[in-house]
Design a protein that fits this description.
Elements lengths: L24 H13 L4 E2 L2 E2 L5 E5 L5 H9 L9 E6 L2 H14 L6 E4 L16 E4 L7 E3 L4 E3 L14 H10 L10 E7 L4 H10 L2 E11 L2 E10 L1
Parallel strand pairs: 3-4, 3-6, 4-5, 6-9
Antiparallel strand pairs: 1-2, 7-8, 9-11, 10-11
The structure holds S-adenosylmethionine.
The site of S-adenosylmethionine has 21 residues, from helix 2 and strand 4.
Length: about 230
């Protein structure tokens, strides 16, 4: 049964594991934007019935994938298949358990993979929407001793400049986007990295970037962005 659109609930996450990234300000920056931009006919301006496959890359607890699965109950025109992937075994276990507990009957397709490396070929050129809240903090560097230390886990460490993991994602992503129609990639960046350098890289890779929202948290701004074809 389709429920009333005026009452999207906050997605509920029954389990978080110690080593899995818990839903945080950046996660809700994404979800709050989607809640505002989804209605019976459109997803952020795209016809909602044209969206056939959505990927939540780096799913963590699974919260963004679960959010998409949940809103299908509210929108009869929204029938997209939902995929969720992560490099971490613990994240995939946690997200799978959350899906089972909420009882979506295994509707989310989970893939354990370092970016797209383990994605099956039949998913190439298929995603209309991809969301990635990547690790976005720079590795800790000790320049005097010429040492760069990785942060201890893949939840945070984005590489030397903070966006190496994200740039590698962008190099691989083109093979997995459905370029037959307009697609969107949503991602989080941080003011603690060199954003003008990141923007240059995005242009070289052929993407147009729009800033959708920002939130100031402690020492940095976290920024929600959307990419589309230049
Ligand atoms: C900042 S957390 C975001 C978690 C969740 N999407 C959220 O918004 O709450 C980043 C996630 O990306 C995953 N990740 C890091 N490097 C990855 C890679 N190379 N391939 C796939 N996932 C990766 C981490 O394991 C972690 O779950």
């Amino acid at each position: 049964m389709v429920k009333n659109i005026n009452s999207f609930p906050d997605p509920s996450i029954p389990y978080t594991f110690d080593e899995v990234y818990p839903p945080s300000d950046d996660t809700y920056l994404i979800i709050d934007y989607f809640i505002k931009e989804i209605n019976e006919n459109f997803f952020d301006g795209l016809p909602i019935n044209s969206i056939k496959k959505i990927l939540d890359m780096g799913t963590g607890t699974g919260i963004i994938a679960l959010f998409f699965q949940e809103i299908k109950k509210y929108l009869s025109n929204f029938t997209s298949k939902i995929y969720a992937s992560d490099i971490s075994d613990a994240a995939i276990r946690c997200a799978t358990l959350n899906e089972k507990t909420i009882n979506y009957k295994n509707n989310i397709n989970f893939i354990k993979s370092d970016l797209f490396r383990k994605f099956p070929p039949n998913l190439q050129h298929s995603f209309d929407i991809i969301v990635f809240n990547p690790p976005y903090l720079p590795s800790i560097s000790d320049k005097e001793n010429n040492i760069i230390r990785r942060r201890s886990d893949s939840n945070w460490d984005g590489g030397e400049r903070g966006f190496e993991v994200f740039l590698e994602f962008l190099r691989q992503v083109k093979d997995f986007l459905n370029s037959e129609q307009k697609y969107y990639i949503y991602y989080i960046s941080s003011s603690s990295t060199d954003l003008s350098e990141l923007n240059e890289e995005l242009e070289i890779l052929g993407f147009q970037n729009s800033v959708l929202n920002k939130r100031h948290i402690f020492f940095e701004d976290i920024i929600l962005n959307r990419l589309e074809e230049l």
